[in-house]
Automatic annotation (TrEMBL):
SUPFAM superfamilies hit by this protein: EPT/RTPC-like
Primary enzyme class: transferase
Pathway the protein acts in: Cell wall biogenesis; peptidoglycan biosynthesis
Gene name in the database record: murA
Protein name: UDP-N-acetylglucosamine 1-carboxyvinyltransferase
Gene3D superfamilies (UniProt xref): Enolpyruvate transferase domain
Species of the source: Polynucleobacter kasalickyi
Residue ranges occupied by any Enolpyruvate transferase domain in the UniProt entry: 6-412
Length: 424
């Protein structure tokens, strides 16, 4: 199993190109199931979850083609026919986002069999809102032997529009229901919809495919179902979490880096907090120049739905706070178990205590390298940041979590001057 070996204490300098967003690419790949025509995607990130999703689509009989085999950022997907409308446990257990095939399969094919995702390191993460929403659109949903068996109403074999108010704001729930609704008969209104930029990015692709969706970027999406969608070419939005992760890295290590091909307008809450920490930034439409010359100031925050502070940046900011000049209070409101990195950071010399969903971080002068274990995707990223600032050597185990969601993170960090290498 791969590990990362880091010799900390090096400031970062140079330029990094930000990849396409994992959380936009995954639903967008599933959206290709909604048409028999060709969907060409650009700015695809080259990471494990994307490879898993492409494998899942291939298992369904979908054609996946990289026109230039050396360029993994452009892919052609064609779901001319769907041979098997199924996502097995083997696939779903490695990537929860596999649940995103449910809406498109049900809408286009009239039935689907998708393994229920189990709980995961960061929380229970049920999918009850996906199921209830599809039931409201007329689908028969049964859970049997750990699988969701979904069938569109007969004899039409087509879902019908509905007004759906989810109990909470759910990102993949909104995406799944939006994809189910685009081919339904009549109008669907999704109330309490997630406003994350990745939801809007999916909606834009669907519109390019001929879907009728209004309310983009708001908490009410209205979808007028159409009979069929057609192919499209689409460029996936930049990854705001990768962007934020590199910004936290330079804020922690000091130095000066330029991030290109990013979308600063999707990062307002993160940028505000980094300014509070002392990171100096010049910001263009698609680039950020970030400079840090001193020890960070502590930043307290509370995670919440977009446009508030993202839970996917909580761990990375925790790493920054460990070496800040004072104490910070971090409140996690989205997932019930997203402090798994805390114990590992304490092993590196951090001083963090947890009380329920609140972590109190007392900044220390320095961290000291040790062997630590990655437990989930963003926890891994936060340990990389901690390793980059720690004195001495840090070995991070179980980095397959990191590879799920980052496009060659250690290669990009090495190019910035970090002493980091992948070891077997
Ligand atoms: C692939 C992807 O885009 N993943 C993101 C997505 O995950 P994901 O879409 O799984 O997260 P949700 O927005 O659905 O979850 C928000 C909260 O709602 C709960 N819930 C959700 C659905 C449901 O049917 N029932 C239910 O109880 C969840 O357990 C969680 O406590 O949004 C999260 C919150 O921004 C991010 O951390 C993930 O990176
Ligand atoms: C939690 C995340 O992803 P997923 O929903 O795919 O587990 C994440 O991207 O931080």
């Amino acid at each position: 199993m791969d590990k990362l070996f880091i010799q900390g204490g090096k400031p970062l300098h140079g330029e990094v190109r930000i990849a396409g967003a994992k959380n936009a690419a995954l639903p967008i790949l599933c959206a290709a199931l909604l048409t028999k025509d060709l969907v060409t995607l650009r700015n695809l990130p080259d990471l494990q979850d994307v490879r898993t999703m492409l494998k899942l689509l291939s298992q369904m009989g979908v054609s996946v083609n990289f026109p230039d085999p050396l360029d993994r950022t452009v892919v052609e997907i064609q779901a001319h026919t769907i041979a098997k409308a199924e996502a097995t446990y083997d696939m779903v257990k490695t990537m929860r986002a596999s649940i995103l095939v449910l809406g498109p399969l049900l809408a286009r094919y009239g039935n689907a069999r998708v393994s229920l995702p189990g709980g995961c390191a960061i929380g229970a993460r049920p999918v009850d809102q996906h199921i209830k929403g599809m039931q409201a659109m007329g689908a028969k949903m049964h859970i049997e032997h750990g699988y969701i068996q979904a069938n569109a109403p007969q004899p039409s074999g087509r879902l019908h529009g509905a007004k759906i108010l989810t109990d909470m704001i759910t990102v993949t729930g909104t995406e799944n229901l939006m994809m189910a609704a685009v081919l339904a008969e009549g109008k669907t209104v999704l109330e309490n919809a997630a406003r994350e930029p990745e939801v809007t990015d999916l909606a834009k692709l669907l519109i390019a495919m001929g879907a009728k969706i209004t309310g983009l970027g708001t908490d009410q999406l209205t979808i007028e179902g159409v009979e069929a969608l057609h192919g499209a070419e689409y460029e996936i939005i930049a990854d705001r979490i990768e962007t934020g992760t590199f910004l936290c890295a330079v804020a922690a290590t000091t130095g000066e880096i330029k991030l290109t091909h990013c979308r600063p307008d999707t990062l307002e809450a993160v940028i505000t907090k980094l300014q509070e920490a002392g990171l100096e930034m010049s910001i263009g439409d698609n680039w950020i120049l970030a400079k840090m010359q001193k020890r960070p100031q502590p930043v307290s925050f509370r995670t919440s739905e977009y446009p508030s502070f993202p839970t996917d940046m909580q761990a990375q900011f925790m790493a920054l706070n460990t070496i800040a000049n004072g104490s910070a209070r971090v409140t996690e409101t989205i997932f019930e178990n997203r402090f798994m990195h805390v114990q590992e950071m304490n092993r590196l010399g951090a001083s963090i205590s947890i009380d329920g969903n609140i972590a109190m971080v007392d900044g220390v002068d320095h961290l000291s390298g040790a062997t630590v274990m990655a437990t989930d995707l963003r926890a891994s990223a936060s340990l990389v940041i901690a390793g980059l600032v720690a004195q001495g050597d840090t070995l991070i185990e179980r980095i397959y979590h990191l590879d799920r969601g980052y496009d060659r993170m250690e290669v990009k960090l090495s190019a910035l001057g970090a002493q980091i290498e992948r070891v077997k």
